[in-house]
């Protein structure tokens, strides 16, 4: 597969930073600041940004159960279900998740042409077919992967999940789908405490540092690309692997996190595999650290795919 001259396309909608009750706002702030920083420094222009619409129910239902989607639309999630998600339900929050899912689908179309596309939000890998968990209502990678398969736009998909938390919802959703290979490299002693079974899980010990992390990833990616032979990839580039992260428990430096992104993009580009990226988690106490680490992903993507 060959790509046209690179045009970095990035999904962003102001609803990504939808205000929540006090105590929930900090995790959302980065969604405003990432595009602002990239525009300010000149890494992108407004031409690189596009605003997705909300994903249609018909498409979401290729992944999620009808009864669950009805609960989201009718705002009838139980108190227990809301606690598992971590956010109180609201029509705005539901719309936000449908917009994120469509943003990831739209990114697929751009990646098929230009090699890569990124969603400022997304990576909602804790959502199952019939429930949400861990700040995730819909599983955007799963929705987009099923869209590609349904439309015949991809035949073998590799999901590279490098968030510090296992992609438990994604693993469950594709447990019996041989056309999607799920790979999660995550903290062994981190949420979710009950792990699902991905096609490949690498559980890292607390305190894992750059050298071991990057070596494991390099060897694993080489093996997977040879074994799986994907014609499309999704990359969850969570920055909660950083040593500064409040919950991550790993010891990855900012530079190690940047090298991780560089490695993934380089190997996928070398084999002409289109890639869609979502940001995933990041919970360092200083918002500047979170934004800088996420912005590195965009900078590296631009550099690699401009070569």
Automatic annotation (TrEMBL):
Pfam families: Hist_deacetyl (PF00850). InterPro entries: HDAC_classIV (IPR044150), HDACs (IPR000286), His_deacetylse_dom (IPR023801), His_deacetylse_dom_sf (IPR037138), Ureohydrolase_dom_sf (IPR023696). Keywords: Hydrolase. CDD domains: HDAC_classIV. Residues 27-295 form the Histone deacetylase domain. GO terms for molecular function: histone deacetylase activity; hydrolase activity. GO terms for biological process: epigenetic regulation of gene expression. Belongs to the histone deacetylase family. This is Deacetylase. The lineage of its organism: Bacteria, Pseudomonadati, Bacteroidota, Chitinophagia, Chitinophagales.
């Amino acid at each position: 597969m060959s790509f046209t001259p690179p045009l970095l396309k990035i999904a962003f909608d102001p609803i990504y930073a939808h205000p929540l009750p006090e105590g929930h706002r900090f995790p959302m702030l980065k969604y405003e600041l990432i595009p602002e920083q990239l525009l300010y420094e000149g890494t992108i222009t407004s031409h690189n940004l596009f605003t997705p619409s909300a994903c249609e129910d018909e498409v979401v239902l290729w992944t999620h159960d009808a009864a669950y989607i009805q609960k989201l639309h009718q705002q009838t999630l139980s108190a227990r279900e809301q606690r598992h998600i971590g956010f109180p339900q609201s029509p705005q929050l539901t719309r936000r998740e449908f917009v994120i899912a469509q943003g990831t689908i739209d990114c697929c179309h751009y990646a098929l042409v230009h090699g890569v596309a990124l969603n400022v939000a997304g990576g909602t890998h804790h959502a199952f077919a019939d429930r949400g968990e861990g700040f995730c209502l819909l599983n955007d990678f799963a929705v987009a992967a099923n869209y590609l398969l349904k439309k015949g736009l991809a035949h073998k998909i590799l999901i590279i999940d490098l968030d510090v938390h296992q992609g438990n919802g994604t693993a469950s959703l594709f447990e019996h789908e041989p056309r999607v290979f799920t790979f999660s490299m995550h903290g062994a002693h981190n949420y979710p405490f009950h792990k699902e079974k991905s096609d490949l899980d690498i559980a890292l010990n607390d305190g894992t540092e750059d050298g071991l992390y990057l070596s494991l990833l390099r060897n694993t990616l080489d093996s997977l690309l040879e074994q799986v032979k994907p014609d499309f990839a999704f990359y969850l580039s969570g920055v909660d692997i950083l040593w500064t992260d409040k919950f991550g428990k790993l010891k990855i430096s900012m530079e190690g996190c940047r090298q991780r992104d560089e490695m993934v993009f380089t190997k996928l580009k070398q084999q002409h595999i289109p890639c869609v990226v979502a940001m995933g988690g990041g919970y360092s106490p200083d918002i500047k650290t979170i934004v800088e680490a996420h912005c590195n992903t965009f900078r590296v993507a631009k550099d690699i795919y401009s070569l």
